[in-house]
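Next comes a single protein record:
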Amino acid sequence: MSLTEQYLLDAHRALHHGEPVPPAPGTHDLRVLRALREHRRFRAVLAGRPARGRIRHALGRWLHPDPRATGRPRPRATGRPRLR
């Protein structure tokens, strides 16, 4: 049984029993995702980690490592385009 068929069956039963109709599938998806995001931020603060920008910061460190930390010399800007 699909999600839509189950919803229609539940709505039909609710109408016959005089109960409120359940919300349609997907009605509260954004609210749940926002609550999950806020909960994760809250847990990060309790653990002593930054609440925002953790993934972007980690990717930035991985994609653009500090040349001083690796011991590699920084490439010089020559002003001419590089040939490929």
User: Anything to note?
Assistant: The chain has four helices and no strands. The chain has a mean pLDDT of 83. Helices lie at 3-17, 29-46, 54-63, 67-70.
